[in-house]
Structure formats: C-alpha cells, structure tokens
Design brief:
Organism: Vibrio xiamenensis
CATH class of the largest domain: Alpha Beta
CATH architecture of the largest domain: 3-Layer(aba) Sandwich
Shape: globular
Order of helices and strands: HHEHHEEHEHEEE
InterPro entries: DUF2726, UCP028063_topo_Znf, Znf_GRF
GO molecular function: isomerase activity; zinc ion binding
Mean pLDDT: 83
Number of helices: 6
Protein name: Topoisomerase DNA binding C4 zinc finger
CATH topology of the largest domain: Trna Endonuclease, Chain: A, domain 1
Keywords: Isomerase, Metal-binding, Zinc, Zinc-finger
Length: about 220
Amino acid sequence: MESVFIIVVVLVAFFFLVQKRAAKQVPLKESQYKLKGSLLNNNESVFYNALVAAVANNGVVMPKVAMSQVIGPKSGNKKQWFIANNRIARSYFDYVICDPRTFEPRVVIELDNGKELDKGKIERQKLIIHVCKTANLPLIGCHIKHSYQVGRLRRLLATHIELIEPEKEVRFCKRCGSPMVIKVAAQGEFKGRKFFTCSRQPHCTYTENYNVVFEEDDEL
C-alpha cells in the first residue's frame, strides 16, 4: 500500500513538472485573458450585503475564501498530511468573518440557497463541518431567506463576536407556549455559549440552541 502511495505522488509531481515546463516554452504574450464577471452571483451578493450590515464595524466579511488560506492539516506523518491537505486544496468557505484589526478568522458562514443538495454538495458540506469542528472554528449555516433578516443574522453572529449587539427577540416555548429566556451554559462542552430555555423551569425543561449549524426554520 505504501509503495502505491509513493508511485501516485511521483506521478502527480511528474505531471506538474511537465505542465510547468510546457508553459515556459510558450511566450507570455501568446496567453490572453478576459474577465469572467462578478465574483458572486445575485443571491450571494444580496446575502453578502446583509452580512456586512449585520457585522458593521465589528468585523470584515470576506467571500469565497480558499480553505487552505484559513486552515491547515495538523501535524502527522507525511502520508496523513498529504491526504488531509489534498482534501481541502480545492475547496472554499462561502464567507469568513475576520477580526477588523488582525484579520484573524472568527466565524465561517455557509449559505444554503434552498436548492436540493447533490452528492458533491453533500460531501462538501460534510467536509466543511468536519474541518471547522477539528480546527475549533465556529460555523454557522444560513438560509438565503436570511438575506432579508439582518436582525436574525446579527443575533446568530453575536454568540461569536461579542461587540455585536443582537436585536431583542421574543421566543415562545414550543412545548408549553411560555416566553423563553436567554441563559449562558456554565459548564460542559458548551460552556460560555448562549441558549434559550423555557421561563417555567423546572416545570418545563424545553431548550433551544441560540444558533445552530444549518438550522431549519420556516419563519419568514
């Protein structure tokens, strides 16, 4: 198995060397280029503008960011590193919100355009969830309808960007109908994270995530 892996690496390296040499033999002036158009489609642009409004001066919104610019494989043997790096080499994050001073990534935003996912998109979604979890990088999934709900976006982001003040939101318990209140987890895996809980506790123990990955919400 090890020998097969070495052969594959050698063949890939040889392929790139041949391509590089062939490119050098063609004069630069013979390569002509043209603009492809907007970096974002209409839906992506609308959502980008909503994110900018929600973040304001508390962050920098960057669209279509290559994964390899944000994360990298953890240390391991060469084979493991090569496989891990190859998995993210051609993928990207829809949006990355960075600290406005240091440009350190704070939150990754993935946009759900509402269309049915094909096999390729499902695999990409699994990859994004995995890399964000292992890199301890917060990930929020948003539906395209959030483009028109800046207040909701602000609330989702407030969990990870403290300077953002979420708009007041009233939620009602789906179990008993009572108003819900916001609390902060004092211990456990989600220590420090906000969540909604029923105001009738301990009589009603219903809770909801303050924000979830790829949440399903039918409200408009």
